Amino acid sequence: MIKSVIILLFSVFIPIGVSAARYWSGEPRGNWQTADRSSTGLLPAASRHREAVIRVYGARTVRWKAIFAIHTWIVVKEQNASSYTRYDYTAWGEPIRTNGFAADGRWFGATPETIVAVDGEEASRLIPKIRDVVENYRFRAYGDYSAWPGPNSNTFVQAVLDAVPELKAVLPPTAIGKDYPYAGKSFGLTPSGTGVYASLGGYLGLTAGWVEGFEINFLGAVLGFDIRRPALKFPGIGRLGMTEGA
User: Fold this and answer.
1) For the segment 195-232, what is each residue's pLDDT rounded down to a tens digit?
2) What's the confidence (pLDDT) of residue 10?
3) What would the mean pLDDT of 88-115 be, rounded to a whole number?
4) 198 and 215 in contact (C-beta within 8 Å)?
5) Is the Cβ–Cβ distance between 73 and 88 less than 8 Å?
6) What value does the mean pLDDT take over residues 135-153?
């Protein structure tokens, strides 16, 4: 038993240590006022792209929290629409922020990765479901946001993904807050219907499913593996193997 606990602790803290070393040795990103938030060019100009679009992006969060976590957001565009709509859940201003930043912009200097990408007719079919979750999200009042264990930006995006199981999407292990039980349920079937989950207020938890993979949540740090898209999952580092959006 003691040996298993030691292995678990090493599996959590060594990857976080590696992530911390990367953070401290990396290029400075600036502060809230000066950091780059410009478009990365991941998305084509909306006026020249007729198809409907759904994207979920994630990028390392700001300052020392980047060691542990990413910030995720949602972008949608209906067919023939001339602009994208971006949704973020933030700790300042209106909790659900619409078009506060460039749709594919850097998150205060950090380049985003694509977690979900759906285009065309399938995107057109699913966008109304996404907008419905955004409009009716439970934690939308001032003061609802909580960086840890949630509800935070990743809790918000997870709620959207849970309501649209057709996406078969899973947030990376670095999306701290995704396991916060926003619906008030401590256990049940995973949204995909392919597994089960249990959560103790977002502090401790276990998820096992074909789509979600196997994950242990220990104080927000996620450790696990994925068989459907083979990869190992580590806190701080993220996925090692096939990317979720591949």
Assistant:
1) 999 999 999 999 999 999 999 998 899 999 999 999 99
2) 79
3) 94
4) no
5) yes
6) 94
Chain mean pLDDT for the chain: 93
What is the pTM assigned to this prediction?
0.93
User: Residue 80: how many CB atoms within 10 A of its CB?
Assistant: 11
Q: Which of 116, 155, 148 is nearest to 133 (CA)?
A: 155
Q: Residue type at 61? A: T
Quote the tokens at residue 13: 């803290």
SS3 letters for 84-106? CEEEEECCCCCCEEECCCCCCEC
**C-alpha distances in angstroms, 48 versus 80, 81, 84, 186?**
9, 10, 12, 45
Distance CA 159, CA 137 (A): 8
Closest listed residue to residue 55, CA positions, set 47, 66, 65, 44: 44
Cα 124 from Cα 228, distance rounded (Å): 26
DSSP 8-state class, residue 245: T
Q: Which residue has the tokens 């977690």?
A: 115
